[in-house]
Amino acid sequence: MKTRITEMLGIEHPIIQGGMHYVGFAELAAAVSNAGGLGIITALTQPTPEALAKEIARCRDMTDKPFGVNLTFLPAFAQPPYPEYIRAIIEGGVKVVETAGRNPESVMPFLKAAGIKVIHKCTSVRHSLKAEAIGCDAVSVDGFECGGHPGEDDVPNFILLPRAAEELKIPFVASGGMADGRSLVAALALGAEGMNMGTRFIATKEAPVHENVKRAIVAASELDTRLIMRGLRNTERVLNNTGVERVLRIEREKGAALTIADLYGQVAGVYPKVMRDGDMEAGAWSCGMVAGLIHDVPTVKELIDRIMREADDLIKQRLAGMSRA
Ligand SMILES: Cc1cc2nc3c(=O)[nH]c(=O)nc-3n(C[C@H](O)[C@H](O)[C@H](O)COP(=O)(O)O)c2cc1C
Fold first, then answer.
1. Residue 68 sits in the same domain as residue 156
2. Average pLDDT of 185-213?
């Protein structure tokens, strides 16, 4: 399939794997790129810029296809050394960066000077327009359904994507709730040039996470996610578990007086316990409502081939048949 995104990124299929903390290691990024999509390493999962440089080199050993790096700007207490992480990305010869969190204006000159395509992930039309204005090459439009941080506007993709299409000149991909060929065709119909998936890629053979995580996603329905940290304007969609129920109880008890300090002990350091050790009750980890559409754990290539086959059948048979009729 050829879209503005496949052309821009030099990939075969318009499918991107979004950055994911403690999931976006070289194994998954390389598998997605080898299957014709764009795999993405998550920079801040690497403890240091030197470790990121090694992870990029490891990924390059596993694929000769393009892959990207996600750079998430945290609303954090301890800011990571972003300039050094950016140097590792540039010196590693990476040609695509997915930025997320606050807008990447301050780092754009460095990324653009290195010939890097910047895809900014954002959750509103106004942030997408800002990304366009500061020179981003594309945006990943993340609807309210998404796993991770959906922002505070709560606009689902059936509205958000066509609104983005009305306003943007740069291409965009649909993110949040994307799982299969139906998602891809719908996203294209709404004006996107492809799709970005997070949760769906965790339930694949190559995703380097504990089997318990994959099982939990397959077992979950679309009713099993919760929104936490609303009161801090740092909303995160996570899979419900006893740790999440603890967070929600604290949030209810503290009400308007809630601060990050009240939750810190509940949310800090959870990812390695869940993703590496498979401790599914350790606390909150991002997961999309799309879990309700995930029923198996295929290889990345099986998944991407299936999506493209389904999309092709939908367009050529179901939709073309309706159009003829
Ligand atoms: C476990 C997990 C961790 C994530 N970590 C990050 C992250 O560190 N940085 C980021 O920009 N997005 C992160 N995301 C968001 C994804 O990149 C993507 O935007 C989102 O998962 C799309 O929604 P979906 O899960 O419905 O496909 C994460 C998502 C998940 C499920």
1. yes
2. 98
